[in-house]
Amino acid sequence: MSWTVAVAGATGYAGGEVLRLLTAHPEVEVGALTAASSAGSRLGDHHPHLVSLADRIVQPTEAEILAEHDVVVLALPHGASGAITAALERLAPDGGGAPLLIDCGADHRLTSQQAWETFYGSDYAGAWTYGMPELLHNGETCPRAQRDELAATRRIAVPGCNVTAVTLAVQPGIAAGLLDPSRLTAVLAVGYSGAGKALKPHLTAAEALGSAQPYAVGGTHRHIPEIIQNLEAAGAAAGSVHLSFTPVLVPMSRGILATVTAPMTPALRQAPDPEATLRAAWDDAYGVTDSGESLIQLLPEGTWPTTGTVLGSGTATVQVAIDCRADSVIAMCAIDNLGKGTASAAVQSLNLALGLEETTAIVTQGVAP
């Protein structure tokens, strides 16, 4: 059986990366490619690397076009998917024949209306099933509950890329009760493609090359409530997570390196072998058993994540260690923001929702040098 997949926002970075994966997917056929201002142009004008789709004409993002498909991937700016979703639901009011919807934007990630209105300042569109298969639930040691939810849904919200890096870095320690969530500090080095294609002075080469630029400093970044939501799902008490989050744009096109610092809990501090206890929690969640995560690699001790090793892939590398002098734990994660951070997560979730092998069409090998 083959499913047809339309991609709305096909000319953007996220849409292009979704298409790169879908062209290699053996079970799907790429259908309509849509956009707003670039409708009527060739896809090759925007993504010349997608040779097999280069001559396809970009269509307008209209519900009537998208509704003809089995799956619709929404790679649209924040706030844009709600209207399209509503229009699609009007075309199939009873749900019959409605496509599986996968939103790469933020519109349906947050379960709290108050958090949405505080950080996004627009009308709340409601939460969809969260598209992070590896998300831990309530102290789980092996992430399975989220996969069950994804297998049963028709609406998927793909996580934010920074959120993915921070969540994967620390959630095993939160779930195991080894990290104090009340004083988390996350500093991220982020590639420029995470800012999208919009032309802004600080995103030009003249401003970006040779410079590191912090942004959304002081607790203003929109990914903060989503990270808190995930860590509470993993086992942190409601209201106990306090996160200082500082992203920094660095001169690379793709990639995120997240460094998260957290105080140790008494359970970890008083363990007979704190280092072994700490690593066991990450091993249980991601590790080397037959049920381990194929897209998350816990690195050998003493080896730290780098963005170069995951470039172009849908994998994440993680590492954790104790800083005894600071009475803290350092957890790190590297991902490709367009890969595991966006498009690979979308395709991974699509596979689960369609009953396919989870890693179908996910690139697991990085690009080097």
UniProtKB/TrEMBL annotation:
Pathway membership: Amino-acid biosynthesis; L-arginine biosynthesis; N(2)-acetyl-L-ornithine from L-glutamate: step 3/4
SUPFAM superfamilies, per the entry: Glyceraldehyde-3-phosphate dehydrogenase-like, C-terminal domain (SSF55347), NAD(P)-binding Rossmann-fold domains (SSF51735)
UniProt EC number: 1.2.1.38
GO terms, biological process: L-arginine biosynthetic process
Active-site residues (renumbered): 161
Keywords recorded for this protein, A-Z: Amino-acid biosynthesis, Arginine biosynthesis, Cytoplasm, NADP, Oxidoreductase
GO cellular component: cytoplasm
Residue ranges occupied by any Semialdehyde dehydrogenase NAD-binding domain in the UniProt entry: 4-145
Name recorded for this polypeptide: N-acetyl-gamma-glutamyl-phosphate reductase
Organism expressing this protein natively: Actinomyces oris
Source species taxonomy: Bacteria, Bacillati, Actinomycetota, Actinomycetes, Actinomycetales
Gene: argC
